[in-house]
Amino acid sequence: MCGIVGAIAQRNVVPILIEGLKRLEYRGYDSAGLAIVEDGQLYRKREVGKVRGLEALIAQDAIQGNIGIAHTRWATHGKPSTANAHPHVCRDKVAVVHNGIIENHEQLRNNQKAVGYEFTSETDTEVIVNEIYGALENTDNLLGAVKESIKKLEGAYALGVVAKDHPNTLIACRKGSPLVIGVGIGEYFIASDVAALLPVTQRFMFLEDGDVAEITIDKVVIYDKDDNLVDRSIKESQLKADSVEKGLYRHYMLKEIYDQPWAISEALEGRFIDNRLQESAFGHNAGEVFDQIESIQILACGTSYHAGLVARYWFEKLAKVPCNIEVASEYRYRKPIVPPGTLVVTISQSGETADTLAALQEAKKLGAKYSLAICNVPESSLVRESDLVMMTRAGPEIGVASTKAFTTQLATLLLLVIAIGRRFGLTKELENKISSELFSLPGKIEAVLQLDDKIKQLSEQFAEKQHALFLGRGTHYPIAMEGALKLKEISYIHAEAYPAGELKHGPLALIDAEMPVITVAPNNSLLEKLKSNIQEVSARGGQLIVFMDETLAAENDVNVQIIKMPPVENEISPIIYTIPLQLLSYHVAVLKGTDVDQPRNLAKSVTVE
Ligand code: G6P
Questions:
Q1: Known catalytic residues?
Q2: What does DSSP assign to residue 143?
Q3: Where are the alpha helices (DSSP H) in 269-378?
Q4: CB 123 within 8 A of CB 78
Q5: Using a 6 Å cutoff on CB, does residue 302 contact ligand 1?
Q6: Domain SIS spans what residues (predicted)?
Q7: Does 481 lie in the same domain as 418?
Q8: What is the value of pTM for the model shown?
Q9: What is the pLDDT of residue 245?
């Protein structure tokens, strides 16, 4: 999704902006650009494609300056093109970079056209820069002009603004889209997320919704949504510049798959005292909130939604508490019912997914009194807007296709299952069993990672395929869904997941020798049923790949290939069976030569609706 970087310094900011854009590449984008104010001129460069293309363009003209804004664009309004790339400029005087969507852009566009503005792009952003230009005709104060202009905007935005006649001022503001201010020594920066600025600072101010900041070389002045002067404290980020680098791994995704043993240890670290889960890990008053809970509603998108689907099985089976889950983008418009005593659990890697945030707000409007976020980004909007929080601590996840964020979500959801389950009769024995299984996860994941070479060989059968089916049952049905999503996202092979029992109600018609069927078959109470489903596929000539417990007596057949998995307990099994499916999609994508970490058309953090 779009990324913003800006800087004001006594040194040339162009390299800072370019490095920042490169560090935002992981969010997904299709074009990039920057604008610099220097020597009474506003210079702009834009390019479709990668940031290195923009870098080459800038090198030709040797642009430099002490103040500038830059952007990676992920097309929403208007195709990826140079004309639609940001920054947008009005009459060579004002430049704006924008993340978000302006919902009333058509109306503003018509008003502006009526008074003579000409449009050079199809974007919703151009109306913003025109508004600011217009406001500057009545004031010589850039801050005042931005404040006036944003009053007219409906929708979501994070903005960076510079103007030719205001070479010492950078304006930043946000409503519904994230924006941080990086604090350097005698210099300031802005960015959509901290990752962009780690090489230049680890000190950040997190703007709140509705904030407008006026940034000059020696100070930052911030006004809140009611135009009150406010202080936003400076927080030190724990991230180091190299924590978002891929080291010796060929792709971030592979590194992040291999990070999982460590990430899960981090997720569990400090959450138990004397082997007992501490409820304060969810927030200081978590125990009191959990005492009021009668049911759970989970809201999430994408991979995080799949984590919620697994958790629903756990909440009902292990904790014996009623649990619903819904894709956030549907929930927000459905007028659902939120019974008293509902704990709304949002799950999000980024904590900035617009639909998940909006669904949480909707749930609150509908009467939800208690909310809990499972999230990977401590400073995110979702964390700020939730009563209770469980950080997944997976570390920065750069690959667009989520891997370690998912498995740490699952591990932390099991912690929540324990905490809530205590109130609904989860026995001490089962609690202890789940806890010790959780601590065994890093070692077990290491063991599954040993299958990497085998899975790589297997992936060769996929490179030419157009479609694939994934099957699972129970908690492993969402794992099959996640496997299918991974394959789609990064290899562009059409993949669908079905609960294996549903096969005969339609998808069986698709089975032939060209259709690989990947089955997740752990050793649990549904295994015998699953074996019958496997037979149904095999009898029709389908090519089966079955991930199965090594203790089970099963051998390869003409059209059945078995990948033997280490034995694993039921409760944590979905986490373990995720790993081979991640590796499989990764290797298929590498063979197909796709852009593994930044698959086409996708964004890491979807901050627009
Ligand atoms: C995007 C990403 C997915 C992610 C989803 C939800 O679509 O590409 O990987 O699962 O957003 O993101 P969240 O940050 O809320 O988990």
A1: 2, 604
A2: H
A3: 286-292, 302-314, 328-334, 354-365
A4: yes
A5: yes
A6: 286-426, 458-599
A7: yes
A8: 0.82
A9: 78
